[in-house]
Amino acid sequence: MIAYIQGPLIKKDEDRVLVLANQIGYEVLLPAVVMETLHDKAAGDEVVLHIFYHQTERQPKPTLIGFNLEVEKEFFQRFISVEDIGPLKAVKALSMPVRDIARAIEKKDVKALQKLKGIGNRTAQKIIATLAGKMDKFALIRKGEAPTPAPEEDFAGLVLDVLTKQLGHKPTDAKRMVDEALKRNPAIGSPEELFDEIYRGEEFA
């Protein structure tokens, strides 16, 4: 059974991605909340997904459903234990962070749960009846723990310009240096820190 996939992104559609792992392309369905975290990913970028493997006699074709965190997958398994919520319906329903859904369940907030795609009043009541009192762990997921877009949008563009226009690097080399620096140290928070990390990486390359 497939439980984890890591590899370059081949293609990204509205609700699924195609990931290359060991020369095999895996199509993985993603809840909207997971897909949002891959917003800045392009073909060739590496992705890491924890997989829920779904296959039944009625649906013999395997379906892979991906999550950023193992704990998100665990929540999903609890979520589909609710009557009338199967894996495919659950994928569509997870349109807000798991921590927020868990908190809504613990607070017995029917209106908040009804904001989930495909969840009406009756189903929201069933979710609360089945899962209330069991969501503390998931409600404590740290906000922003799932991968967030790299700080490229804030300052990496400026660093790329300096590397190419002022320091004479080819655009492809400059992008590689920036990407590798951010991968080594995701906590980088300023252009100065990014330049320092790039220098350290190139010094020992």
Short structural description:
This protein has three domains: 4-67, Beta Barrel (OB fold (Dihydrolipoamide Acetyltransferase, E2P)); 87-139, no CATH class; 151-203. The protein is built from ten helices and five strands; from the N terminus they run E-E-E-H-E-E-H-H-H-H-H-H-H-H-H. The protein has helices at residues 32-37, 70-79, 87-93, 98-106, 110-113, 121-131, 136-139, 156-166, 171-184, 191-203, and strands at 4-12, 16-21, 24-29, 46-54, 63-67.
3D architecture notes:
With 205 residues, the chain is α+β, with helices and mostly antiparallel strands. It has three domains: 4-67, Nucleic acid-binding proteins (OB fold (Dihydrolipoamide Acetyltransferase, E2P), Beta Barrel); 87-139, no CATH class; 151-203. 43% of the residues lie in helices and 17% in strands. Strands 1-2-3-5-4 form a five-stranded mixed β-barrel. A hairpin with a 3-residue loop joins strand 1 (4-12) and strand 2. The protein starts with a strand and ends with a helix. The model is unreliable at 145-153 (pLDDT under 50).
